[in-house]
Write a structure and sequence with these properties.
Layout lengths: L7 E5 L4 H12 L3 E6 L2 H14 L4 E5 L5 H15 L4 E4 L14 H29 L2 E6 L12 H21 L4 E6 L13 H4 L1 H13 L5 H14 L3 E2 L4 H11 L1 H16 L2
Parallel strand pairs: 1-2, 1-4, 2-3, 4-5, 5-6, 6-7
Helix pairs in contact: 1-8, 3-4, 4-5, 9-10
């Protein structure tokens, strides 16, 4: 898919991090952009910057995309402002919870709502339009943890696996009816997710960031956005800004018992378990 002045792109979680860089990259490529986030102050600052660069090319609406109502609000706002949606990027995500003894029901519920159900809500709402015109592009941000595993946080690891699985299912089910799907699975990116507040995520999730930093390069969000645009132009399903993740995937698939053993040793080194 070529991003151009005729394109209308929606990006969730766009107040900062990868989402903000994605919004800027799509906008720089010529697209009209609808952005959303819970952080209204930072969100509208991003929108103002985009409209300063090119007047009347961006719109923003604060919403909780972890609910169906929030997704309805965003999609209706986007359509009212710029018409049909060509590409929806379900980027918003949360990192919270630790092990089974410590993760609360709230940790699990919010993780599933934002990391998985938000993708489902958006796809359900967009599908009638896209199937009718036989074209549409759905992108989601999962994580390398969704292809491998996340040491420290059960809710994060499980929901990111589910996000990848949902994207795969969409691609399998609707590709021949005109839908294109990509799934972004980065490893270390210099965002609040990699450098979390231990008071809100728990010490294990924060310490797991040290593992990610040790596993490969930590990219800037703008670096990730550049890779994403290239992948969308090529209509690649799996977007891997960190090439080493593909090597880890191969090891996991071909030597699974050995991989599990290695992950246990890594966990022991990190947490002293």
């Amino acid at each position: 898919m070529d991003i151009s002045s005729a394109s209308h792109v929606v990006v969730t979680g766009a107040a900062g991090g990868i989402g903000r860089s994605l919004a800027r990259a799509f906008h720089a490529a010529g697209a009209r952009v609808t952005i959303t986030d819970l952080d209204e102050t930072r969100l509208f600052a991003v929108c103002n910057d985009l409209n300063t660069a090119r007047p009347d090319s961006a719109t923003a609406i604060a919403a909780d995309i972890g609910s169906r109502a929030g997704n309805v609000t965003v999609i209706e706002h986007a359509r009212a402002r710029f018409g049909a949606i060509d590409l929806f990027f379900a980027n918003a995500g949360v990192g919270m919870g630790t092990d089974l003894e410590s993760a609360s029901d709230r940790d699990w519920d919010i993780s599933f709502a934002v990391n998985v159900h938000a993708h489902r809500y958006a796809a359900e709402l967009l599908m009638p339009e896209w199937l009718a015109r036989k074209s549409g592009y759905f992108c989601s941000t999962a994580s390398a943890a969704g292809l491998l595993a996340q040491i420290g946080s059960a809710p994060y690891s499980v929901t990111k696996h589910a996000a990848v699985a949902f994207a795969e299912w969409l691609s399998i089910t609707y590709h021949d009816r005109g839908l294109r799907v990509s799934c972004l699975c980065p490893q270390g990116v210099n965002t609040n997710m990699l450098n979390p507040d231990k008071s809100t995520t728990g010490p294990n999730f924060a310490s797991a960031g040290d593992v990610v930093r040790a596993a490969g390069a930590v990219l800037e969000p703008d670096d990730v956005a550049r890779v994403v645009l290239e992948a969308i132009r090529d209509e690649r399903f799996l977007i891997l800004p960190h090439p080493e993740v593909e090597t880890y995937m191969t090891t996991r698939a071909s030597q699974h018992a050995r991989w599990l053993g290695g992950m246990r040793k890594l966990q022991a080194r990190v947490f002293g378990a």
